[in-house]
Specification:
Helix content is 49%, strand content 9%. It is an alpha/beta fold. It has 3 domains: 163 residues, no CATH class; 174 residues, Rossmann fold; 72 residues, Helicase, Ruva Protein, domain 3. It comes from Echinicola rosea.
Length: 435
Amino acid sequence: MNELLHFLKIAICARMDFETGKVKQLPKPQMDLHLNKEEALGKFIFDHQVKNQELLLLTLALVPHIDPGFFNRIIQAYFPKGGEFPEFGGIKAKNHRGIIPTGETALYILAGNDANTRKKYLPLFTTSFLFQKGIISLEEGSRSEPRWSGALIMDGEYAELFTTERISKPKLSSSFPAQLINTELEWEDLVLNSKTLNHIQEIEEWLQHEHALLHEWGMHKRLKPGYRVMFFGPPGTGKTLTASLLGKYTQKDVYRIDLSLVTSKYIGETEKNLSSLFDKAANKDWILFFDEADAIFGKRTNVRDAHDKYANQEVSYLLQRIENHPGLVILASNFKSNIDMAFTRRFQSIIEFPLPVAAERLILWEKNIPPKAKIAKDLDLSVFAKKYELTGANIVNVIQYASLKALSKDKKELGQEDLLTGIKKELVKEGKMVN
């Protein structure tokens, strides 16, 4: 870290010495950096072969996070009596008391006041992988300000990684309407029919081989990045568990977005809420799981007023964001018929999660009985499996109810009466007839 700061200081001083007439020829800083490849910053620079102008940009954006007074000290050495130095750029923030570098700061260090040389470096702000991957961005100012006067900002997660060697997972909030989900279960615990499992395997194959397909096999010109899938079926049939397992076995974070919670009656708010999520997820290797997708991607309304018209435009915009997202996006719905056909045509895969049949229900009963629990001798789980059309989630709830009753009676045996009561509770919850 100190080597990078020293490198940046030499580059700034060389430019200022030349521009203020202290030297007649611009010295070119030459430094052989010996960074620790075991640390996040050193590993990043080594893995991405970051050097020259890109190394300067990376260091510029990182400085405020590690040395707030860095730029002030350098400028004060040249202007001990104070005074304005507009060529250097930089802005003051509300809380940060040091100088935050801007695009103008970078251009001054790279090109000084020469307009032609500055023009040569302008493409860096769009072509550099640091900007393309969102590691660094140039904040947009007001319309009256020059484009390059915006602050040079490092993505918060990279700043945290480079300074603390770790990244905190984003938490559910109004600005981030998603929650990290995970599971301790395994693929063997997921009980589905073979057709559904085969479709899920196709998603897993895409997650594992997408990069090779697009780049090693040269399909990036023909295929859009990303993969869009729709899960449909009754609640409790394994849609969320499947998404969690896909993340677990491909080592990707899965974020669940409940669209029924983020849709807003106020025009533009839903778009704003989800747009910030897509912006944050754009360069992360996440799986986005949109639960209750009918809430926003359902059949579009007839245009009766301006609000309906805007709502439809809003949904179209979000669909475009989903189509352009480079990762895996899963939309979950209780019924396929609830989703507008204009949307379903955009998915690579549509997978049904039907209610389990009797044989599958028996496996679910057997898998979810607690290892330390016993079953009453007069209890035949196969009868339950044949008689009661329950989902996997229903069966887990029934077993939880019966297990708690057994524990409260200081027993280790699940009784038929408690299980039947648990089944009745589940059926009543769903408005089904209880026989």
